[in-house]
Design goal:
By secondary structure, this protein is of the alpha/beta class. The protein has twelve helices and ten strands.
Length: about 350
């Protein structure tokens, strides 16, 4: 049990350092202490402290069920494994524009984050664009610095693009809290972003046909006999049971559209990778039953990861399905050319809707 808990939490808390003690905007703008931007456009704080205070740990346990399953030492050990939240400014410093785009991403690791940024570069050549990597669980200075860099490039309107699949999760609600869109944080009460720019948020991926198209293309790359193949769409999923029900309902149209291609069956599940261990274990048991059941019928199970990043929950799903025979489609949505098209479409639709 302990191994499962530590593994799940280490991914839940990826790239999450301890909260700053002061207003991040004042600290950045008035004291000039934001990390220097490197030649790739990243602002990384090399001196970030990762140790939880007793007060922070108590606050997290009140809001996150998984923390209540860990001892103090287990929580501190997981925190010590984490890298920093950080900003990656994608556009050339010479580009100016009155609309800036801030992509909000969970982040996974150096290789995946770099691949993600490469995907955004064509769009970033048109509008000032930055990415904030991390869950803003205990800090928001990386989001503040990204906001400041976009306004420094002339942005009077900043369009936020959340890369969670739907809005039904704690991560989206924390981002909304950081920008003053809702009153209660999902994690800790980090400093809220301060800016004179108008800030709006796009829709999530939800059931957008472009996302269905990406998944369908990935499936087509490995499919040889649709009538004898069972497609299993697997998402990271939210921690809470109630959020998970809503999340699956929103994503169901992807299942319906892909089923029209003539597969024996198309299924959808979230592993709820950061959920309380018995909840996650039940999802894994169901997923394994689907895979093994298809194989027993002589069908080929095709497991498709539904996630932006190319590395992350994929590794967990591989481990979950150890010992079973299946075809694995592990590429992240962001590897597909239509991913950037979706972001550009979402930004344009949000701007067309006005600032309210």
């Amino acid at each position: 049990m302990k191994t499962v808990l530590l593994t799940g939490l280490s991914w839940l808390l990826l790239s999450l350092p301890v909260a700053a003690e002061e207003n991040a905007h004042d600290h950045h703008m008035n004291h000039g202490s934001a990390p220097e931007m490197d030649e790739q456009g990243r602002r990384l704080d090399a001196d970030m402290d990762h140790e939880l205070t007793p007060e922070q740990l108590e606050a997290l346990r009140e809001k996150i069920a998984l923390y209540r399953a860990l001892t103090d030492r287990e929580a501190q050990l997981n925190m010590a494994m984490m890298g920093p939240n950080y900003e990656w400014y994608v556009s050339d410093s010479s580009l100016n524009g009155d609309v800036g785009v801030l992509v909000l991403s969970h982040g996974v690791g150096e290789n995946s984050d770099e691949l993600f940024v490469e995907t955004l570069k064509p769009m970033a050549a048109k509008r000032p664009t930055a990415v904030s990597f991390g869950m803003a669980m205990m800090m928001s200075s990386h989001i503040q610095s990204a906001t400041d860099d976009l306004t420094a490039a002339g942005a009077e309107t900043i369009v936020l693009v959340p890369t969670a699949l739907t809005e039904h999760n704690t991560l989206t609600r924390q981002w909304q809290y950081v920008f003053g869109m809702i009153d209660e944080s999902s994690y800790l009460d980090v400093p809220r972003v301060q800016t004179d720019a108008d800030v709006v948020m796009t829709a999530h991926f939800d059931a957008h046909p472009l996302i269905t198209g990406i998944l369908a293309d990935y499936i087509d790359e490995v499919s040889t006999d649709p009538a004898n193949e069972v497609v299993i769409l697997v998402g990271h999923g939210p921690e809470d049971i109630e959020d998970n029900v809503l999340d699956l309902e929103v994503l169901q149209p992807h299942v319906d559209r892909i089923a029209e291609k003539g597969f024996a069956e198309v299924k959808l599940i979230n592993v709820q990778d950061d959920a309380y261990p018995p909840i996650r274990a039940a999802n894994v048991k169901k997923m394994r039953r689907w895979v093994s059941g298809a194989a027993r019928k002589g069908q080929t199970p095709i497991v498709v990861v539904v996630a932006s990043a190319s590395f992350g929950v994929q590794a967990h799903i591989r481990e979950d399905l150890r010992g079973l025979e299946y075809v694995f489609v592990e590429k992240g949505l962001s590897q597909h050319p239509d991913y950037q098209l979706w972001i550009e479409t979402a930004v344009e639709e949000r701007l067309a809707a006005g600032l309210n």
